[in-house]
Design brief:
The protein is an all-alpha fold. Helices cover 72% and strands 3% of the residues.
């Protein structure tokens, strides 16, 4: 009688019996599933992601009200994606360094400081792009109506 469940060893690796082995997924499906798991883990472990999600929803709502053009939407989506990507990368590097704290040299703190500066620069540039884009559109709409 097969339960179609793998045996899990101490390291968390699954050992399937030959007859119960699931079919191999294609590479793009595996990558998509890993991406979904990554987003889920990031949202669960990093409370600032909820802030970014809320801010992104607010920015998109404002953009709909202002009636952005196609190029403005492209620029806005690029800025939002860049900001979210920088936060996820920063969080990932921080988690890696926390896990490997005993094995890495003490001067790695300088590396973390430099990556934090790079991510803040990306975040600041994305925020400035969004503010300029929405501010210009707001002024265009506001002064056009008067």
């Amino acid at each position: 009688m097969s339960t179609n469940q793998p045996t899990i060893d101490k390291l968390g690796n699954a050992d399937w019996k030959a007859s119960d082995r699931p079919r191999e997924r294609s590479s793009w499906r595996r990558r998509l599933a890993e991406t979904e798991r990554g987003f889920t883990a990031c949202f669960r472990a990093n409370s600032s992601m909820f802030f970014y999600f809320f801010t992104t929803c607010t920015i998109i709502s404002i953009a709909f009200v202002l009636g952005l053009s196609g190029l403005e939407w492209a620029l806005l989506s690029f800025a939002i994606t860049t900001a979210l990507c920088s936060e996820v990368l920063h969080f990932s590097i921080q988690k890696i360094l926390e896990q490997a704290q005993e094995q890495i040299p003490r001067n790695i703190h300088q590396f973390l400081t430099m990556t934090r500066a790079a991510f803040m620069l990306l975040l600041g540039g994305s925020s400035l792009t969004i503010l300029i884009l929405l501010g210009a559109k707001f002024l265009e709409v506001y002064y056009h109506n008067f």
